[in-house]
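Summary of Year 1 activities. Much of the first year was spent building the evaluation harness for sequence design. The harness presents a backbone, in tokenized form, and records the residue chosen at every position. We chose the following record to illustrate the format because it has been used consistently in internal testing since the harness was completed.
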């Protein structure tokens, strides 16, 4: 089913720049930004605590049913550090942000991460966990890796995604 406005998924290890990028795209391309962590928090869709990552484990089924109607409308940009539990047909394109380890390390330390939480998140990036997860969950032809080391990377990622959104809109104007 073709949507008039696209749905985009932005995923990647925490600290790679997902929410910064998503909020910019939301503003510049008139898409609605959905921060899944916030949705889970505000709806209290929390299942358990992950000791390894020192964070809550969200109730994925509840999050999916909460968002289902919105996603069917199209025009959404969704950001989360996981991606294999969303229905595959929600997304027209998936971007996985990646950041060099030393840069990511500094960002996460600045965010107050330390010990096992810091180590596990860096490992997650080293092993390209989210890229593999995205390629496993979606058609690999719609999954793209984007470097997110510098403000210049951020700018070019915004430009590239906005260009793609405009092309999608003109191709689906009558859909
Ligand atoms: P995420 O949502 O993936 O956890 P954030 O968007 O919160 O990441 O970004 C984490 C921090 O890194 C923020 O301080 C943000 O300003 C910074 N940042 C993100 N992407 C970049 C980038 N490409 N270049 C420089 N700083 C960045």
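For this record, the design step produced the sequence shown next.
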């Amino acid at each position: 089913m073709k949507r008039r406005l696209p749905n985009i998924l932005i995923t990647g290890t925490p600290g790679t720049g997902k929410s910064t990028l998503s909020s910019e795209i939301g503003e510049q391309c008139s898409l609605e930004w959905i921060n899944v962590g916030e949705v889970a928090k505000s709806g209290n869709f929390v299942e358990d605590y992950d000791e390894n990552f020192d964070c809550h484990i969200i109730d994925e089924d509840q999050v999916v049913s909460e968002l289902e109607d919105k996603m069917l409308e199209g025009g959404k940009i969704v950001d989360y550090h996981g991606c294999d539990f969303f229905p595959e047909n929600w997304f027209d394109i998936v971007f996985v942000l990646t950041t060099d380890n030393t840069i990511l390390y500094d960002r996460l330390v600045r965010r107050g991460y330390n010990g096992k939480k810091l180590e596990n998140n860096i490992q997650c990036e080293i092993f390209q966990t989210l890229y593999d997860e995205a390629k496993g969950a979606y058609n690999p032809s719609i999954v793209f890796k984007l470097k997110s080391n510098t403000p210049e990377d951020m700018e070019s990622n915004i430009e590239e995604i906005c260009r793609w959104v405009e092309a999608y809109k003109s191709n689906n104007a009558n859909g």
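The chain is about 50% helix and 20% strand. Quantitative recovery figures across the full test set are reported in Table 2.
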